[in-house]
Amino acid sequence: MEVGEEVIFKLITHSGSARSNVFEAFQFCQVGDYEGAKKLMKEADENILEAHKAQTKLIQKEASGEVMEVRLLMVHAQDHLMTCILAKEIMMNMMKIQEELNEIKTHLSLNK
């Protein structure tokens, strides 16, 4: 496996893990486990950082004059990173809304 390919697979792996962390964090939030959600979002951030490091290696290779052939695998890797970052931003907002909804539900059930 080429070095470039190895880096691309790291990008895919860490991006995919981050995306999974984010969606699992939302599930924790839905049941009121905000600490668990916070921990998973931290793991997502760590995975996104590792994905960015891999992406930076690829950019540095190209910037140093190494010709990088744009292949479907590279496009797939970039798509993974973009999607996980977008999912994280959306889920952060959804988690705030979910927390407020959980508080409203608790308040309503106490007032019955």
UniProtKB/TrEMBL annotation:
Q: Which GO terms describe its biological process?
A: phosphoenolpyruvate-dependent sugar phosphotransferase system
Q: Which residues carry this modification: Phosphohistidine?
A: H76
Spell out the InterPro entries in the cross-references. Answer: PTS_IIA_lac/cel, PTS_IIA_lac/cel_sf
* Tree of life domain: Bacteria
**UniProt binding sites for Mg(2+):** D79
Q: Which UniProt keywords apply?
A: Magnesium, Metal-binding, Phosphotransferase system, Sugar transport, Transferase, Transport
Q: Does the keyword rRNA-binding apply?
A: no
Active-site feature positions: H76 (tele-phosphohistidine intermediate)
* Textual note on the cofactor: Binds 1 Mg(2+) ion per trimer.
Instruction: Write out the GO MF terms.
Output: metal ion binding; transferase activity
Classification via CDD domains = PTS_IIA_lac
For this protein, the record's Pfam families field holds: PTS_IIA
Name the cofactor(s) required for activity, per the record.
Answer: Mg(2+)
Q: What is this protein called?
A: PTS system, cellobiose-specific IIA component
